[in-house]
Write a structure and sequence with these properties.
alpha/beta, Alpha-Beta Plaits, FAD/NAD(P)-binding domain, 3 domains, seven-stranded mixed beta sheet, five-stranded parallel beta sheet, 24 strands, 25% strand, globular
Length: 536
């Protein structure tokens, strides 16, 4: 196969994949100095929108083509963008370790992919999940958004698929993997029902509606391979002898022997983190980020990103913004959801947090994104000391800090999502209530949002929004905000060695909750790596 990079095309509104492939084939043939009919196969491997020099906007693609006499064609082509394609194909570890009993705790992307790889290798893992299966979970979440009555067992944080199930379903990652694991994850998603476009889109996503089917299909595949999946089964204890795992407790009323335990528990299982500390597992507090969700009309974002001429050519436009305050604190957008919704993602009574979610069509009226600020041990110490609960060296300091902010958010609007106009928060303007049914899932109330975050973070937020206004006109004036965004990543790291093992032999910390991933794909890849460690 021959790879061709940087094929630039004029945008065409609502262009079909067949028409796009035909245009790419014509361009590729010209570059290779061959006839179009000499190209036996063409596959898009990368596609992105280049809008850096508006009003000029292009679609830029990389393709792989199959031709006869490949060496001669390569020799004849003079472009530096033409080269031999070199693809790495990931091969799952095979074998049989039937005597080894492996338990995976958590059915998010890390736990699901870890259990899947173990099952493919011949083991029959037990996958336990504290929440419910995705069908029942979806019903529970919709009921919560309508009634405000939280089910601590089944919600946006807990249940099959993990927290990412009710998100935008983004599949891009900053992780680099030369062994093909990322491509393997994406190809597995396609086999399980995701669109093929995720294999080449520069900003791949599936949306919450498709993701629900994908995770259900993956769970059923694990079961077909001999794995066992148990819902409403929380990890409640870890037993060890002479520093080695012997088994686990489930729901405080059941014990399971285990040779290996994978901790893919997600970033929100506060009670599980506390239990693990008490069990002697080595953990440490880590920095993360907190902030608010901001909402703007998607049409405004489309015009800003693509210009007036091409605003309707590419669907809902994403954005990514970042700044640093004069004192060095990072302020940046996170988990941007084009055409999406802000959702109440609380998991504990008396505490409130929000997240962003999009359906596969990304056709909502509003765009939303978290605007978050980095926080670390200094921030934890300052706020926890004020609350009289700071303890130096506490591995759960970040988690306690999170809880303080979420309790303030809950009180701000009496348990509803606190919302405000950006003008009211940033400029003391009017906080005129508006109908946000097209922007928010869950009961909400316009209120004064000052005081949910510490003053230094409010100042950093204002600084960042002012700078972002220079990139996207209207960003700090034409929209709304909601809070609090506090579950951006895990507040702890469960330490592990180069073999993936914690200080308790047989315990494998894994994924985002353990502090080793940040998103669906990176968590899935860490799940695969953890399975490889167990199998080796």
């Amino acid at each position: 196969m021959i790879r061709i990079d940087q094929l630039r095309l004029e945008p065409v509104k609502n262009e079909s994949p067949i028409a796009l492939t035909a245009r790419l084939k014509k361009k590729a043939a010209k570059l290779l100095k061959i006839r179009e009919e000499d190209i036996m196969e063409l596959r898009i491997v990368r596609s992105s929108v280049d809008a850096r020099k508006k009003p000029e906007v292009f679609v830029t693609c990389s393709v792989e083509v199959k031709v006869s006499g490949e060496k001669g064609v390569l020799k004849k082509a003079s472009s530096p963008n033409v080269k031999e394609a070199k693809n790495v194909i990931y091969s799952p570890v095979r074998g049989s370790l039937e005597k080894k009993k492996c338990i995976v705790a958590g059915a998010g992307p890390a736990g699901l992919f870890c259990a899947y790889m173990l099952a493919l290798a011949g083991l029959k893992p037990l996958l336990i999940e504290r929440g419910r299966d995705v069908d029942r979970r979806s019903t529970d979440v919709e009921a919560f958004w309508k009634t405000g009555v939280l089910d601590p067992v089944s919600n946006v944080q807990f249940g099959e698929g993990g927290a990412g199930t009710f998100s935008d379903g983004k599949l891009n990652t900053g992780v680099k993997d030369p062994f093909g694991r990322i491509e393997y994850v994406l190809e597995t998603f396609v086999k399980l029902g995701a669109p093929e476009s995720i294999l080449y889109d520069s900003h791949p996503h599936v949306g919450t509606d498709i993701l629900k089917s994908v995770v259900k299909n993956l769970r059923e595949r694990i079961e077909e391979l001999g794995g066992r999946v148990c819902f409403e089964s929380a990890l409640t204890s870890v037993s060890q002898k002479n520093g080695a795992l012997t088994g686990i407790g489930i729901n405080n009323d059941r014990f399971e022997d285990a040779d290996a335990l994978v901790l893919a528990i997600g970033h929100s299982a506060a009670d599980t983190f506390s239990m693990l500390v008490s069990s002697g597992l080595s953990m440490e507090s880590k920095s993360f980020a907190v902030g608010y969700r901001v909402m703007h009309p998607q049409a405004m974002i489309n015009r800003a990103q693509y210009g007036e001429r091409y605003a309707g050519c590419f669907g809902a436009a994403p954005y990514r913004l970042a700044e640093k305050t004069p004192d060095g604190r990072g302020v940046y957008t996170f988990c941007m959801c084009p055409g999406g919704y802000v959702v109440n993602s609380s998991a504990e009574n008396g505490r409130l947090c929000v997240n962003g979610m999009s359906y596969s069509g990304r056709d909502g009226y509003y765009a939303n994104s978290a605007v978050i600020m980095s926080v670390d041990e200094r921030d934890f110490e300052r706020e926890l000391t004020k609350a009289g609960i700071y303890k130096a060296g506490d591995p759960l300091a970040g988690m306690l800090y999170q809880k303080l902010l979420e309790e303030r958010a809950f009180r701000a609007a009496g348990g509803k999502i606190p919302v405000s106009t950006l003008n009211a928060f940033l400029r003391n303007g009017e906080n005129t209530p508006a109908d946000l049914d097209a922007a928010v899932k869950g009961a909400r109330e316009f209120c004064d949002m000052k005081g949910i975050l510490p003053a230094e973070l409010e100042e950093a937020f204002a600084y960042g929004m002012e700078r972002f206004e220079k990139r996207i006109r209207g960003f700090s004036t034409e929209g709304f905000m909601a809070g609090v965004e506090s579950r951006t990543s895990s507040p702890v790291r469960i330490t592990r060695d180069e073999d993936g093992v914690s200080n308790i032999q047989g315990v494998y910390p894994c994924g985002e909750g353990a502090g080793y991933a940040g998103g669906i794909v990176s968590a899935a890849v860490d799940g695969i790596k953890t399975a490889e460690k167990i199998l080796s």
